Amino acid sequence: MERQDAEALPWMAKFTRDPWPHKVVWVQTGVTHDRFYWLELPIGAAKPGPEDRGDRARSG
Questions:
Q1: Would you give the end-to-end CA distance of the chain in angstroms?
Q2: pLDDT in tens, 27-43
Q3: DSSP readout, 1-60?
Q4: What is the per-residue pLDDT for 1?
Q5: pTM greater than the 0.70 cutoff
Q6: What whole-number distance in Å separates Cα of residue 26 and Cα of residue 42?
C-alpha cells in the first residue's frame, strides 16, 4: 500500500481500544466470512448484508 495505511495511525491514536466490549456489530459486505476475531457463524450461515450483533455474556 506504499505506506498509505500509516496515515491511519494518528486517527487511531485518538481512540482507546476496549479488549472486552459489551457489544459487537458485524456487517457482512462484499466477500462473506464465517469467522471474525472471536466470533463464528455456523457453516453456510454467512450471507452478505445482514448485521450480526453479539452481547457479551456476563457471569456472576
A1: 46
A2: 777 777 777 766 777 77
A3: -TTGGGGHHHHHTTS---SS-SEEEEE--SS--SEETTEEPPTT---SS-EEEEE-----
A4: 58
A5: no
A6: 15
